[in-house]
Amino acid sequence: MTGIGAVISNNLPILAIAIPLLGGFFIPLLGILAERAGAPKAKDYFALIIAILTFLCMIPIAKSVVMDGEIWVYQLAGRFPPWGINLAIDGLSLLAGIIASGMTLLVVVFSIGFMDGETGLDKYYLLLLIMCAGMIGISFTGDVFNLYVFFEIMSISSYALVAFYRSGKSLEGSFKYLVMGTVGTVSILWGVAIVYGLTGTLNIADLSVRLTAIRQVAPGVPISIILAIALFVTGFGIKIGMVPLHTWLPDAYQAAPSSIAAILAGGTTVVGVAALLRVTYLLFYAFPIGYMFIGLGLITMVVGAFMALVQDDLKRLLAYSGISQMGYILLGVGIGGLGGYAGISVVAADNGFRGGLFHMLNNAIYKPLLFLCAGAVIYRVGTSKMDDIGGLARKMPVTAVAFIIGALALAGIPPLNGFLSKWTIYVASYQVNPILTVIAVVISGLTLAYLLKAFSMVFLGPTPAKFEDIQEAPASLLVPMVILAALCIVVIVLPLLDFPIIKPAWKSLSDHVPYIKAVLGGVS
């Protein structure tokens, strides 16, 4: 490949960040010109083009990482690691990047209809695309300081998007998110300061080498490293809604536009998990931190499920459900981190990583699906209070079918995708302690109970007289929902294909040597 094609191909990692970042800033200007030209939807379609181009950047990268087994290292300004700024894309980075760009594309399509008629859409799409750039930057960055910078980019845009409606509830939800999010980013920055003070480097691969050397010569675990781990887990734990750091999440998800709640549930939390795993398991893999994730995962799983049981607002119920599902991810990756400790077999550890990351992918499918279904309901009936709704299956059959598919998948009912990831976690947890499996299965039963209750209240029973004339949601709302519902079914073939997108991600967690060699060796 020569000429401009080679330039584009060689710079795809930075283009995946630059396209949404720079494209977003053109939208306000385009909006002004479009209004004058009598084409108010131009900004919607420009945002769609930017989202498509961003997602297309991922395809050649995916081929390189998944099919060719490469780790793509990109140096900015020609400076090789550990100096300068670099992007490093392995299986975990790719998984998070594909989810971030794919969710952005689906949310933009949904927003074309869902946000129609709202004022300030130029700012909406600007912030949405900046958030996308932040998510991809988090996924791809090769140093901890820029990890913090990209988290700030993603977070600030998401705070503003939660407050988009400018109502009392949306401003309250955004403020709670802002306060907790600021605590999270400051915690991450303090963690960065500590590891830099210990090692004199910010490059993730170089940090891994130097922190491991400290572990080998230290008689115990240094207090400074314990503090750094605690700060990173606190910072990222707030971002992903881990109990007891979850208090902002239900209010923010309930108050945000449903399109934004969907990308928060399926985008920002996923890249937050990827960042948490990257920092903890690559920087501190010489320390048995898997036990911590198992404990936090169980607490998150249980609290989220029991809180979801008592909700009467559909979006709030889905928010707590998402918290509960985060517990399964933490349980799985926690078991994965125990490989080599306390007699935990390599098979059990691999099953833990495989199940946790597969569940992370699945959560990026059915959690956004359910929020988009809730958005379609709100679009037609104007409320998410389940007591005020009913009988919508006859009026909105596509939305009803999409919702029940997402609900059954999230609850882990076979043969949908959620069952396979949960089953893998069950197998891994049973190999560690059967009690873990019992708890996980019981929580899945509770999940099925509250989701069926929600489906019954919203879609079954008599239709209130005031809703007799409503119709199915517009096509732009239905298309992303149908795609995600189809993925809940299609993704079940991944185990038959040897987990083509999951396997490189879990291998990057269980074996750090290829990543370190690729980055510090300057391999691109």
TrEMBL record:
Residues 85-125 form the NADH-Ubiquinone oxidoreductase (complex I) chain 5 N-terminal domain. Residues 142-446 form the NADH:quinone oxidoreductase/Mrp antiporter transmembrane domain. The keyword Membrane applies. The chain crosses the membrane at residues 12-33, 45-67, 87-112, 124-141, 147-165, 177-198, 218-238, 259-283, 289-310, 317-344, 364-382, 394-413, 433-452, 473-497. This is NADH:quinone oxidoreductase/Mrp antiporter membrane subunit domain-containing protein. It is found in: Cell membrane. Keywords: Cell membrane, Membrane, Transmembrane, Transmembrane helix. One of its GO terms (cellular component) is plasma membrane. Pfam families: Proton_antipo_M, Proton_antipo_N. InterPro entries: CPA3_Na-H_Antiporter_D, ND/Mrp_TM, Proton_antipo_N. It comes from the Archaea. It is a multi-pass membrane protein.
